[in-house]
Amino acid sequence: MHAYRTHTCAALTAAEVGRDVRLSGWVHRKRDHGGVLFVDLRDHYGITQVVADGDSPALPILEGLRAESVVTIDGVVKPRAAGTANANLATGEIEVFAKGVTVQSAAQELPLPVAGEADYPEDIRLRYRFLDLRREKLHANIVLRSNVISSLRRRMVDQGFTEFQTPILTASSPEGARDYLVPSRVHPGKFYALPQAPQMFKQLLMVAGFDRYFQIAPCFRDEDARADRSPGEFYQLDFEMSYVTQDDVFAAIEPVLHGVFEEFANWQGKGRTVSPLPFKRIPYRESMLKYGSDKPDLRNPILITDVSEHFKDSGFGRFASMVEAGDVVRALPAPDTADKSRKFFDDMNSWAQSEGFPGLGYATQKDGVFGGPIANNHGQEGMKAIADAMGLSPNDGIFFAAGKVGQAAKLAGLARTRVAEQLDLIDEKRFEFCWIVDFPMFEYDEDAKKVDFSHNPFSMPQGELEALETKDPLDILAYQYDIVCNGVELSSGAIRNHKPEIMYKAFEIAGYTQADVDTNFAGMINAFKFGAPPHGGSAPGVDRIVMLLADEPNIREVIVFPMTQKAEDLMMGAPNFATNKQLRELNIRLVDQPGAAKASAPVAEAVDPAAG
């Protein structure tokens, strides 16, 4: 017999009744029924009920153990008594009568319980993540993550992609988020950067002649955390293709994502559906108008309408004057709210103010009659014209967001989500995908008072060099695209700018000289001068894919060892101070920050060893 187990804790069925077995696992729960002790023994695979009574030599030992102690049980498989079978367990028809027990590791008092799914403070969960990971839901999430990655990898290979690994220690990039820097011991005063993404490397692989690349790529960005973004590191399904148009990229990745989501749509019996192929394509400007966001949740049936024209020279002076000054008015329906009290609408206005906006106007409607201050000023006929333009029913209320285009779009988009949540309009049983396409190549930076890139500086402009030379920069669109699912951006991508003359011109429009490009992007621009194929790709986020499939509101619930929102690893004690020996080896000294509190740590400074 094996030293630790003949079966896992999910393997025994009625077919093994009468067999001598050996099981190992954690003491999950204990129930004392007056001289008969029931122990749920748990391992990675499942749970088996173990029974010890006065005839079992294991009884006194098991009675003295705390939950989460690790034991090996020798026993015999018996059928459960009539009426006591547990249909929720794979082993629910049997139990193991304990004839002996070996304690492999006795547990101390737990800082958080493993049995059950009670909420616990985040700092305790992350400090004792190894215990947190034993809990059923989180354990299942991590197994799901592994299965999703395996499925993604298999599907990419089936689509003709080849997996390559790109460097982790690389050069800092002046574009994008803040880098994580790594000091070099052999090059004093110089630093590597951890890759924010394998962007340049994957493009160089195309220049090198590899046709279809992918990897499950670790990426590192010194960004603040939020619900769908981890601080520090994340993983993405990074891929790139040569000799492709935008349509070719979509055709390659859509079956992969659709297949993975269909494969796991019924995970834990959730029974969800996936939007059919091909995924819907929405131009950026249309998305910002109809949904108030470039990450629209298409499960939400509410659409936003621009009603600015309706308020020109209208009786509602405030909106009329705003429209005259160049602002816009966006409207969204509050479906079937005739029976809602005034408080519902007032609460929405208060919510908008709490989000930092001046407010959210509204009009009520019941049986085609409009109420509220806006209706009183704009008149019944004017309100009916707006309702007809929006395609409203006689009992639909209206919310109004007014201001500059960007501000009105943002408020309307947030209100669209809020109204749908308040009225329970979002279908939680669907995965709705879409592509956002035709992003503007450039935007005007109000702070810097200059034209700058709006999305990805390495994208191919639609119209290529001719567009850059003849069009207003703010009218130029790019072959850039995002894929969105249920309001979550899974990735950005683009057909790349592979021609040096177009890249120089694009950066010139954004205020960069040819020397700037040659210095900051030397590896890529030099490679393009030796024959580069047209290429494009994308990089769907693995963490966000799993978060959606696991139906978790926070990305930390699908990452094995996540950091806190402040980018701290409480379990391992990172980040931490380096020793003086390590600092000397790296030619770094620590200096105090001017004006910093005495308790603050000093700042690292690279030292030129040639200097005194």
Distance between the termini: 70 Å
Low-confidence stretches: none
Strand order of the largest sheet: 6-9-10-24-23-22-19-12
Q: Rough shape?
A: globular
Major β-sheet annotation: 8 strands, mixed
Question: Could you characterize what this model shows?
Answer:
The protein has 612 residues and is of the alpha+beta class. It has 18 helices and 26 strands. An eight-stranded mixed beta sheet has the order 6-9-10-24-23-22-19-12. Strand 1 and strand 2 (37-42) form a beta hairpin. The model has no long low-confidence stretch (mean pLDDT 94).
Summarize the structure in short.
By secondary structure, the chain is α+β, with helices and mostly antiparallel strands.
Annotation keywords:
single chain; 612 residues; alpha+beta; eight-stranded mixed beta sheet; five-stranded mixed barrel; 18 helices; 28% helix; 24% strand; globular
Topology summary:
Blueprint: E1 20-32, E2 37-42, E3 47-52, H1 59-63, E4 70-79, E5 94-105, H2 122-127, H3 129-132, H4 136-158, E6 162-163, E7 181-183, E8 191-193, H5 199-207, E9 212-221, E10 232-242, H6 246-264, E11 273-274, E12 280-283, H7 284-290, E13 305-306, H8 317-324, E14 328-334, H9 342-354, E15 361-366, E16 369-371, H10 373-378, H11 380-390, E17 397-403, H12 405-422, E18 430-431, E19 433-437, E20 442-445, E21 450-453, H13 464-470, E22 480-485, E23 488-495, H14 500-509, H15 514-520, H16 522-528, E24 535-538, H17 542-549, H18 580-585, E25 588-591, E26 603-606
Parallel strand pairs: 3-5, 6-9, 11-18, 12-19
Antiparallel strand pairs: 1-2, 1-4, 2-3, 4-5, 7-8, 9-10, 10-24, 13-14, 14-17, 15-16, 15-17, 19-22, 20-21, 22-23, 23-24, 25-26
Helix pairs in contact: 4-6, 4-17, 5-16, 13-14, 15-16
